[in-house]
Amino acid sequence: MSEQKAPKISPARRHYQRVTAAQAAGAADPRAAQGGEQYEVHAAYLWEARRTVKRIKSLEAKVAKKRELLPEFESYVAGVLEGGQGAQDDVLMTVMLWRLDVGDLAGGIEVADYALRHGLDTPDRFERDTASIVAEQVAEEALARLEATEGDELPAVAAELVMHLARAQALTEDADMHDQIRAKLHKALGYAYRESGSLGDALEQLRRALQLNDRVGVKKDIERLERQVRDEGKNAAQGTTAQG
User: Fold this and answer.
1) 8-state DSSP, 28
2) Would residue 119 be called left, alpha or beta, if left means φ above 0 and alpha means ψ between -120 and 50 degrees?
3) Is residue 243 part of a domain?
4) Rounded CA separation 159/175 (Å)
5) CA-wise closest residue to 72 among 103, 94, 101
6) For the chain, how many structural domains are there in total?
7) If you ran DSSP here, which 8-state letter would residue 88 be given?
8) In this structure, what DSSP letter does residue 73 have?
């Protein structure tokens, strides 16, 4: 059997998918499962897409295949986010998880905002709750990007990650989750703040991470930042004295 590839769809067809998905999502009972023509079509496509991904052994290749298949769901997801009332939607939730898997933080958090606002659960095959998955995957992706980025690009990358991490933190702030997961999110935000030049914010986040999990691995980073902040304060005070 040949590998599944996302079919090319015309702009008119994508518009139809978005509009009809929005209508069906708006009409669905928030206490029930999502239905409608577009849901059924995309649920069937997702079933095939998951089979395709499952056959791939390489994790790197799995991510590449998910990235290739995700555009097929864009119009449907846009419609649900536009008109949805919060019906349980396994297609939408799987797309959220796949977007996070491939590093599309903006796209994943966009769906997470809707999902957390309406209390949507992850599909049964996932053992963790929505807030925990969002917090941990956003944190892990951010940490990986920070580690992989060097030189002049790092401050800009870190500033973008601050935006995504802060949003993920705000969305999951009131959720009940393991302290280790929340600590990881604070750690990632602390490192992103540090690399973007916001040392005070970085210290605050890393201290909170340590409070939640004393094995999170930030003690030496906190010590270095504290020295750096003290030195910058001394230099600023000396500069003010010299000017006076």
Assistant:
1) S
2) left
3) no
4) 25
5) 94
6) 2
7) B
8) G
